[in-house]
């Protein structure tokens, strides 16, 4: 059995192992991998995500068990220190010796640190490993504890530097990007697109300094600033260096392998170095006098090395390597493909630029106008996948090539259909998956939806840029096979939510059983029951007390279930306005029942830790003090957050609190496909954060600006401007229509933002329906909403006054005792549930 | 934590030594559940009216060891009756206790009989 030693357990080193063990011949080889870092290989491309969740596991290429399961001997935390080519052995830093038949160098690169005076100061970091990020996070926390407006600079405005800029933003420091060249991303963008990107990044808070050569780093011990020239300095508390990479070729140099003048181990098109037993792949390999700093060519090199070692000696790396990339930088699409900057002797460029919307699109076409040679997209890269395919496959382009990037006037697709691509078109360049393979797994029945396609082919698991195209291909293939892609609720109903809405409304059904007996099958489940419950509430204004066994976990007991099965209680405090007496009442009730008390994210007061038996007792007291249900447990209106407005604030333009209370009281209790939040700000300073809500109002000269479709959550979205300078009455009219239309047509658990984005025709269509009444339903929508408003009843008042409804608030049906499994532990003068093991 | 789990073991009809009188039929919601206390055990009992059947299982969800299953929603998975935990929607077969959407250990189920409007649960002891 032959022994392969892989030096380096980064993305490419891992990919080599993955591709090797997938081969039948791998049983003839023993594989040992050395990684210098303490953890197994992780996804460096998405490193900045670590700042969002600090979950190193989520970035792993494969869990540690994978290596053992596949007979790969993984040795982490042990660096290979020396290669002895004549004896074919390596020695590690722990002085252990291993012999090899094949050696694969995948040591990658290190960040290049320019020789600037003072780079050794504390607070100067490089951006490469999880340990680097942890160091930055600790240091940033220290800065923030010492001063409120800490600043961090990134040296280098390339792709990775801008990623690091996002990391700084996420760390809560003021970000500055310092670039030596006169443009951002000099390797991918031309001057004009760089200018557009700069404007966009500045609009979201990045400070960008171009054409700056850093002379020295200032500070006594730790960094306090950067000096560019005389009298030209920037005060910063932290610096992240992202000024390019240098291949880690020291091992290769020491053992006499051929290396390039500026570093990198020279390889031929079979990935062999100057020693036949030694291969080099990834960022250490110098191929065609180039180091390729992208993951896709690295994976291709891994593939070639595997094939060579198992004896398929005809496979070789192509001479031209596609360096196209698409990425989302701090929410901004940037893509470049083929030949982005084209010399005039090769062809013509067509450029579309709109600085007001931070858009730039450029394509380069051959002189005869028949071939697409490359291009750049900034601000909107939705067409990247298709343009990239057209370029790669030399596909025909329209007679007027400008149609490829100009906004289509008739809405028709100029790019043609994904199904027109040739079978060999490479869709996922990271994993080398072709269109033929994707369609193949669907046609063979192996995959039935996008998720299956991804797990069968690995397409989309690298940079993820091809995911939209994989989804399009999947849907188109399913359609071509006559398989209908239908968004039915669950196995019990062959209808979507909107169809069920119409059925219940037309037939006038009042119970779940009527609906499922007549239009479904089986007994229902935890998906369809709450959907029907929500529809009954929207159509008939039924409260959650009526058919409580079909309500979701929280609605069923009119409270929010918490970790240990106890509940939290949120009374309504409309607009956040509360009298001292009511505040005292809340405090006293919380004290009496020993409830953990906290202000919620929606600035209400939440009382945690009530048992099932306590819920009605607490509520009786709350009701006697004039409180009512806050519906924090429902897919319904939560709060309308307000700033203090013109009654007190010296800047206020209108009474945001009064209007917020009116709106909250109007829409309280209505059930919707998902929760709804509102906000009202008295002026443009927007203290109520209204644009982060499903509906938001901002007072301006001459009325309110109405925004719709915003949310926080996993995918934060700003609400979009819907109408300007409208009066209170018009706001209510539009909101009645908007919310009712949403409640009628959205999918289950779809927030307004996603609904608005997916609805055919988008926001313009919504404006037509709601403002211009283009389909003649505005009056119906208003009437339906008014009926719901008129029928409002506090569910808790209803429940505590009805003994039959109260029966469910007992932990045991045969005992007055409480759950004896509950354990609380103290925390900051209050209590919390004992943590889960 | 593990010792709580050990209190519950699946009981077959032929193993029943004690029929415990829990409560009257009217005390349980239609197509829903409630919790019964028997010695130091908590048992979730479901009136599956759509199938005209009754089911009982441990109230303890093995996922996070909380006493919550009686508050879960019932339904069917391709015809097999199930309950979904209210905390994270882990689903378990009411027939044999198997975790239907994951790899959790099966929960213990118990026989139920209804006589003269009263609900009885069967135990080994």
Descriptive account of the structure:
The complex is a heterodimer of chains A (837) and B (125). Chain A is of the alpha/beta class. Chain A is built from 26 helices and 38 strands. A five-stranded parallel β-sheet of chain A has the order 3-2-1-7-19. In chain A, a hairpin with a 5-residue loop joins strand 24 (359-366) and strand 25. In chain A, helix 1 packs parallel to helix 9 (295-309) and helix 21 (728-745) packs across helix 24. Residues 409-413 of chain A have low confidence and may be disordered. Chain B is mainly beta and 125 residues long. Chain B has a single domain (2-123), classed as Rieske [2Fe-2S] iron-sulphur domain (Rieske Iron-sulfur Protein, 3-layer Sandwich). Helices cover 4% and strands 46% of the residues of chain B. Chain B has one helix at 2-6; strands at 18-24, 32-38, 41-48, 53-58, 60-61, 66-67, 73-77, 80-84, 91-93, 109-110, 112-115, 118-123. In chain B, the strands form four sheets. Chain B has a four-stranded antiparallel β-sheet with strand order 2-3-4-10, with no helix packed on it. In chain B, strands 1-12-11 form a three-stranded antiparallel β-sheet, with no helix packed on it. Chain B has a three-stranded antiparallel β-sheet with strand order 7-8-9, with no helix packed on it. In chain B, strand 2 and strand 3 form a beta hairpin. The longest helix of chain B is centred in the first third of the chain and has 5 residues, at 2-6. Chain B starts with a helix and ends with a strand. Chains A and B meet through helix 16 of A and strand 2, strand 3, strand 6, strand 7 and strand 8 of B.
């Amino acid at each position: 059995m032959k022994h392969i030693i892989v030096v380096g357990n980064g993305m490419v080193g891992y990919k080599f192992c993955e591709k090797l063990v997938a081969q039948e011949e791998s049983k003839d080889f023993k594989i040992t991998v050395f990684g210098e870092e303490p953890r197994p290989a992780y996804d460096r491309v998405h490193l900045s995500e670590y700042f969002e969740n600090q979950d190193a596991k989520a970035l792993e290429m494969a869990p540690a068990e994978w290596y053992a399961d596949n007979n790969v001997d993984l040795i982490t935390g042990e660096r290979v220190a020396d290669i002895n080519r004549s004896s074919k052995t390596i020695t590690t830093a722990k002085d252990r010796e291993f012999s090899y038949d094949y050696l694969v160098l995948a040591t990658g690169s290190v960040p290049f640190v320019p020789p600037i005076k003072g780079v050794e100061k504390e607070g100067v970091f490089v951006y490469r490993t999880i340990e680097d990020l942890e160091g930055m996070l600790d240091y940033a926390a220290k800065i923030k504890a010492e001063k409120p407006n800490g600043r961090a600079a990134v040296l280098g405005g390339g792709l990775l530097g801008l990623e690091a800029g996002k990391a700084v933003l996420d760390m809560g420091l003021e970000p500055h990007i310092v670039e030596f060249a006169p443009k951002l991303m000099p390797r991918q963008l031309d001057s004009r697109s760089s200018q557009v990107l700069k404007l966009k990044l500045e609009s979201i808070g990045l400070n960008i300094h171009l054409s700056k050569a850093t002379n020295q780093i200032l500070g006594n011990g730790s960094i306090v600033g950067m000096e560019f020239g005389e009298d030209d300095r920037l005060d910063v508390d932290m610096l992240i260096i992202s000024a390019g990479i240098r291949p880690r070729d020291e091992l290769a140099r020491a053992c006499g392998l051929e290396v390039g003048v500026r570093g990198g181990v020279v390889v031929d098109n079979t990935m062999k170095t100057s020693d036949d037993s030694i291969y080099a792949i990834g960022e250490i390999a110098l191929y065609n006098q180039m180091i390729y700093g992208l993951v896709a060519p690295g994976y291709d090199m891994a593939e070639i090395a595997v094939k060579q070692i198992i004896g398929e000696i005809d496979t070789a790396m192509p001479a031209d390597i596609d360096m196209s990339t698409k990425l989302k930088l701090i929410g901004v699409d940037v893509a470049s493909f083929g030949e982005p900057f084209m010399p005039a002797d090769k062809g013509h460029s067509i450029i579309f630029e709109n600085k007001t919307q931070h858009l730039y699109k450029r394509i380069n076409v051959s002189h005869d106008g028949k071939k697409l040679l490359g291009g750049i997209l900034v601000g909107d890269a939705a067409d990247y996948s298709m343009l990239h395919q057209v370029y790669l496959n030399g596909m025909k382009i329209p007679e007027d090539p400008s149609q490829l990037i100009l906004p289509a006037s008739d809405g028709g697709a100029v790019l043609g259909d994904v199904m027109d691509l040739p079978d060999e078109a490479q869709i996922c360049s990271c994993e080398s998956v072709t269109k033929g393979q994707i369609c193949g797994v669907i046609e063979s029945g192996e995959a039935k939806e996008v998720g299956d396609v991804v797990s069968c082919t690995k397409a989309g698991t690298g940079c993820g840029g091809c995911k939209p195209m994989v989804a399009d291909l999947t849907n188109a293939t399913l359609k071509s096979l006559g398989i209908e892609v239908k968004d039915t609720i669950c196995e019990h109903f062959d209808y979507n939510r909107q169809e069920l809405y119409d059925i219940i409304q037309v037939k006038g059904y009042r119970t779940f059983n009527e609906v499922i007996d007549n239009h479904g099958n089986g007994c229902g489940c935890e998906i369809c029951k709450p959907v029907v419950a929500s529809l009954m509430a929207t159509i008939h204004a039924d409260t959650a007390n009526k058919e409580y066994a079909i309500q979701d976990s929280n609605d069923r007991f009119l409270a929010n279930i918490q970790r240990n099965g106890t509940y939290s209680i949120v009374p309504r405090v409309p607009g956040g306005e509360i009298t001292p007496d009511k505040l005292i009442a809340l405090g006293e009730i919380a004290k009496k029942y020993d409830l953990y008390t906290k202000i919620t994210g929606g600035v209400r007061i939440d009382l945690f830790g009530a048992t099932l038996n306590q819920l009605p007792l607490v509520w009786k007291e709350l009701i006697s003090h004039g409180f009512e249900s806050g519906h924090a447990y429902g897919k319904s209106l939560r709060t309308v957050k307000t700033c203090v407005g013109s009654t007190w604030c010296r800047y206020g333009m209108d009474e945001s609190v009064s209007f917020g209370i009116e709106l909250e009281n109007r829409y309280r209790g209505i059930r919707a496909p998902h929760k709804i939040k509102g906000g009202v700000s008295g002026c443009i300073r927007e203290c109520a954060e209204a644009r982060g809500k499903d509906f938001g109002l901002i007072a301006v000269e001459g009325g309110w600006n109405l925004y719709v479709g915003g949310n926080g959550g996993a995918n934060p979205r700003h609400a979009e401007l819907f109408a300007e300078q409208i009066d209170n009455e018009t706001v209510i009219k539009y909101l009645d229509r908007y919310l009712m239309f949403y409640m009628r047509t959205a999918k289950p658990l779809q927030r307004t933002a996603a609904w608005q984005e997916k609805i055919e025709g988008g926001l313009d269509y919504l404006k037509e329906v709601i403002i211009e009444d283009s389909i003649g339903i505005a009056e119906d929508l208003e009437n339906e909403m008014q009926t719901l408003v008129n029928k409002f009843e506090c569910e808790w008042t209803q429940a505590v006054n009805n003994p039959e409804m109260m029966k469910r608030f007992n932990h045991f049906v045969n005992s007055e005792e409480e759950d004896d499994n509950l354990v609380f532990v103290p925390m900051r003068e209050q209590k919390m549930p004992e943590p889960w093991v | 934590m593990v010792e709580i789990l050990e209190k519950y073991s699946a009981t077959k009809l032929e193993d029943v030594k004690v029929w415990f009188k829990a409560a009257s039929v009217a005390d349980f919601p239609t197509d829903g559940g409630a919790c019964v206390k028997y010695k130091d055990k908590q048992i979730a009992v479901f009136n599956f009216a759509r199938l005209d059947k009754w089911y009982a299982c441990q109230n303890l969800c093995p996922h996070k060891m909380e006493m919550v299953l009686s508050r879960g929603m019932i339904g069917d998975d391709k015809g097999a009756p199930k309950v979904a935990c209210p905390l994270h929607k882990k689903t378990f077969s009411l027939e044999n206790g198997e975790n239907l959407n994951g790899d959790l250990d099966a929960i213990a189920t118990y026989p139920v009989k209804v006589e003269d409007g009263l609900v009885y649960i069967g135990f080994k002891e």
